[in-house]
Amino acid sequence: MISTQSATAPLEGAPARRRFIRTAEPDADGQLSCDLLIIGSGMGGSTFAHALGQKGLDILIVERGDFLPHEAQNWEAEAVFGKGRYRNAEQWLDRDNKPFNPGVFYYVGGNTKFYGAMLPRFREADFGEVRHAEGIAPKWPISYDELEPFYCQAEALYKVHGNAGQDPTDPPRSKPYPWPGLQHDPALGRLELSMRAQGLKPFAMPAAVDYGPERGCVLCSTCDGYPCLLDAKADAEMSALRPALDQPNVRLLTRTRVDRLGTSADGKRVTEALGNRDGQPIRISAKRVALACGAVNSAALLLKSRSALHPNGLGNSSDQVGRNYMVHNSTFMIAVDPRRANSVRFQKTLALNDWYHAGNGNMFPLGNVQMLGKIREPMITPMRPWLPKPVSRFITGHSVDLYLTSEDIPTQDNRIVYDQALDAIKVHWTPNNLSAHKRLVERTTALMRKAGYPIVLTERMGIATNSHQCGTAVMGDDPTRSVVDRNCKMHDLDNVWIVDSAPFPSSAAVNPALTIAANALRVATQFCAAS
């Protein structure tokens, strides 16, 4: 059954974009069927659906959440950060059963509804073995060259603005960026000049925004971490899912949580997905299944689906489902000059990769430095609750704000577990490669002080900051040491693929979103060839 509904009630003054889309409904018995079931509508699931939408398959995308509302609070820092208006994920547990609120969102479009819309490629070297200060990031079974054409396709799909050749670590590309890079806000000009005077090579980050003449983006200060009131952020819903749903063979089922996957009698094929929609049980029959729930939830679903034929979890004969969890070492940095207010609006353009690889004075790779969207008082309060709000407002009104990212190393002990007794996801996570991250923080602190910011505040992110999650179902050629093959089909199952970041063997040190999209496009090509 198909219904036509409004994704959101149009907000007065908002652009006249497509509001009405077709959504699926189960029959009276709570049942549906499809050729291909895609579980999750984030970057991986929506891009995969977009790639396969014109192939004639009956595709059903299942999303746990609903459409995110368009409302004035989309742009209010107090609503988004202070009150957590849009947080809708259940609590997870750490290894000691202490609950925390993960940084994931269950909406159509997934976490991309709130991401900073920066879509860098992984570096060419990231696909090989990389020696770090505290371990080795393993080689991928695929190369950068294999993924490169799909990076180009993903950049076009997500309207990426960038300038080739500015970044000293830029990997080779076969096509230019679809759009020129964004100009830095004038308020960042002095900082950029100081970086160059210190011998560094700042560049404009690849930005996925619908910006240009007669286009929606206005380069506002409420992009990074906020939903876009204008639908001008190139997120998974707007860029990939909605165009896919223009095809009559592609359907979307919202407000539906899949709890378990059932198999054929021999355990070789998934035949059904069992779950819940609005408090009612639901059963979806599918010929093929693609998991795109996010690295944590995809692993958890497989572990929940254990059976007599799959006693350690579905498709887990290697005992690698849930293992190798990576989430990046990351630090917020707030550099303050009390003498000058920062009038910046769109701050998230400037970035540095001078210390990304070994060399330039560092024996091992350190990572990436990029600007954050402008930090406001409601964002800093959770980090420094004892700080009076007038002081927080002064600090954030006189600061530039950065995000520092270093690669972490996959280990067997950093893993996702499903605790059946507690009916909860548990995250066993011990940060590693912290010496490199400490060095990155030290170098960036010195850089900012030389640039005229005498006060530098830092806060390293903990277990709840997991928007860059990956690993948990790594790809590889050896079925005893990996979960999926190089085309992301599960070794143990004939008809299940994983198209989020769970198959990533390493995390690199930049946002994984574009690589998720490019890999989903690559897997779709192989999926069609094998059909």
Describe the structure.
The protein has 531 residues and is of the alpha+beta class. Helices cover 20% and strands 21% of the residues. It has 10 helices and 23 strands. It has helices at residues 43-52, 77-82, 144-157, 189-197, 236-244, 295-304, 377-380, 389-397, 434-450, 513-530, and strands spanning 2-6, 20-24, 31-39, 59-62, 92-94, 99-100, 130-132, 135-137, 160-161, 203-204, 207-208, 250-253, 256-263, 270-277, 280-291, 329-336, 350-352, 368-371, 399-406, 415-419, 424-428, 455-460, 496-498. The strands form 6 sheets. Strands 3, 4, 12, 13, 14, 15 and 23 form a 7-stranded mixed β-sheet that branches. It has a 6-stranded antiparallel β-sheet with strand order 10-17-18-19-16-22. Helix 1 (43-52) packs parallel to helix 5 and helix 1 packs parallel to helix 10 (513-530). The longest helix has 18 residues, at 513-530. The protein starts with a strand and ends with a helix. Mean pLDDT is 93; it is low at 4-19.
Task: Summarize this structure briefly.
This protein is α+β, with helices and mostly antiparallel strands.
Task: Give the SSE layout.
Elements: E1 2-6, E2 20-24, E3 31-39, H1 43-52, E4 59-62, H2 77-82, E5 92-94, E6 99-100, E7 130-132, E8 135-137, H3 144-157, E9 160-161, H4 189-197, E10 203-204, E11 207-208, H5 236-244, E12 250-253, E13 256-263, E14 270-277, E15 280-291, H6 295-304, E16 329-336, E17 350-352, E18 368-371, H7 377-380, H8 389-397, E19 399-406, E20 415-419, E21 424-428, H9 434-450, E22 455-460, E23 496-498, H10 513-530
Parallel strand pairs: 3-4, 3-15, 4-12, 5-21, 15-23
Antiparallel strand pairs: 1-2, 5-6, 7-8, 9-11, 10-17, 13-14, 14-15, 16-19, 16-22, 17-18, 18-19, 20-21
Helix pairs in contact: 1-5, 1-10, 3-10
